[in-house]
């Protein structure tokens, strides 16, 4: 998160290109709201770039928590700005730890000291001035210290003891949804009709596969196909992996929690009950 123009997009671009472990170059990155950066053979970090302030606040209000760590981007020439403060507030209220990426250190008018002092004034005490928040001076544009930022993320993840359950029924959160008119591939890689309704699901428990039945809000899917951020079909998506899922009858909403059920029949009944409840509530409100 960060104030507009402080370099969030540039940092995400830089991180995407820092995919040094897998060494996969080429392949057009699709906007699916999230992507994974492998940092070693066994570890990877998932970056979520959707939540604008509103989406983040809405997700929180609905109890969905998709973010374990907030990377706060603050440009060292500008320092703390109004939206920087909003981000700090959001992270604090959601009780999510912050790592500060002090960006644009390549600029002649960058002032790291002043930025640190401003952050301290607003309650973010960096380690460099005796606090406990990690701050990493970076240049998103010149890809300086991106590796240090990843290290900092892993350090905080370890401190927070971030763990999930890779088994059991699938649980996740919808990050984005849309109607996709590009072709879908079948098993022999031939294009069939358009993908239709797709949604990016961040898997937070279990392993999502073709055929899994999910309920998200008032939408149901029997997973037809799964795609990674490069647009390639994948067999499954495990814990903390964001994946585009096709096969939705209707579009779920960002922030909807998705969970696996045994049968489509049961899924449809659940949705019907939800719709009835909402209708009853609305009629009650209308009659007041
Ligand atoms: P966002 O609005 O936070 O997503 O910011 P952008 O990533 O779009 O960056 C805003 C402007 O700042 C663009 O012109 C970038 O090229 C520039 N910028 C971003 N990071 C750096 C950096 O590390 N150094 C310099 N000199 N410019 C940067």
UniProtKB/TrEMBL annotation:
Domain Tr-type G as annotated: residue spans: 1-163
Keyword Nucleotide-binding applies: yes
Main location group: mitochondrion
Subcellular localization: Mitochondrion
GO cellular component: a single term: mitochondrion
Keywords: GTP-binding, Initiation factor, Mitochondrion, Nucleotide-binding, Protein biosynthesis, Transit peptide
Entry similarity comment: Belongs to the TRAFAC class translation factor GTPase superfamily. Classic translation factor GTPase family. IF-2 subfamily.
Name under which the protein is recorded: Translation initiation factor IF-2, mitochondrial
Source species: Didymodactylos carnosus
Residues of the full protein shown: 1 to 288 of 545
């Amino acid at each position: 998160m960060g104030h507009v123009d402080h370099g969030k997009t540039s940092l995400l671009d830089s991180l995407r290109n820092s995919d040094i472990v897998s060494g996969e170059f080429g392949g057009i990155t699709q906007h699916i709201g999230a992507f994974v950066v492998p940092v070693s053979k066994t570890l990877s970090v998932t970056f979520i770039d959707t939540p604008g302030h509103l989406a983040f606040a809405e997700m929180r209000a609905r109890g969905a928590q998709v973010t374990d760590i907030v990377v706060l981007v603050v440009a060292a020439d500008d320092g703390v700005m109004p939206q920087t403060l909003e981000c700090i507030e959001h992270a604090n209220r959601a009780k999510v730890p912050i790592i500060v990426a002090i960006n644009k250190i390549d600029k002649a008018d960058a002032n790291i000291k002043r930025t640190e002092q401003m952050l301290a004034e607003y309650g973010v005490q960096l380690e460099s001035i005796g606090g406990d928040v990690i701050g990493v001076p970076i240049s998103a544009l010149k890809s300086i210290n991106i590796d240090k930022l990843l290290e900092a993320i892993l350090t905080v993840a370890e401190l927070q003891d971030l763990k999930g359950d890779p088994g059991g029924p699938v649980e996740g959160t919808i990050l984005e949804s849309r109607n996709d008119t590009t072709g879908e591939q079948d098993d022999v890689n031939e294009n069939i009709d358009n993908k239709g309704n797709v949604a990016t699901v961040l898997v937070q428990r279990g392993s999502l596969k073709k055929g899994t039945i999910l309920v998200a809000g008032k939408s149901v899917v029997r997973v037809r196909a799964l795609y990674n951020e490069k647009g390639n079909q994948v067999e499954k998506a495990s814990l903390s992996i964001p994946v585009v899922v096709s096969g939705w009858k209707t579009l779920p909403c960002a922030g909807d929690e998705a969970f696996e059920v045994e049968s489509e029949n049961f899924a449809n009944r659940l949705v019907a009950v939800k719709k009835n409840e909402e209708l009853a509530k609305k009629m009650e409100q209308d009659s007041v």
